[in-house]
Write a structure and sequence with these properties.
76 residues, 0% strand, mainly alpha, 67% helix, single chain
Length: 76
């Protein structure tokens, strides 16, 4: 029987066999849980400083656009 009677793991590790990644579903579930927790925390704590400043800039821009389009008859 010779070499084939006792298979050695080093003989078979060189091929491109079935490499299943069993950690991928677990990681995607944990990412989903992290996203959900982040959304809940955002509701509790409110908007971030970046979001607040972005909103303020947009409001200023819209107000400037509105003011520039007013006519003299609308002001009276």
């Amino acid at each position: 029987m010779g070499d084939n009677s006792t298979p050695d793991a080093s003989k078979f590790s060189k091929g491109g066999g079935n490499n299943a990644n069993f950690g991928a579903p677990k990681k995607s579930l944990s990412r989903g849980a992290k996203d959900q927790r982040a959304a809940e925390n955002k509701v509790v704590s409110g908007a971030t400083d970046t979001e607040k400043s972005r909103k303020a800039k947009m409001l200023e821009k819209l107000q400037a656009n509105l003011d520039s389009n007013k006519t003299a008859s609308n002001e009276e």
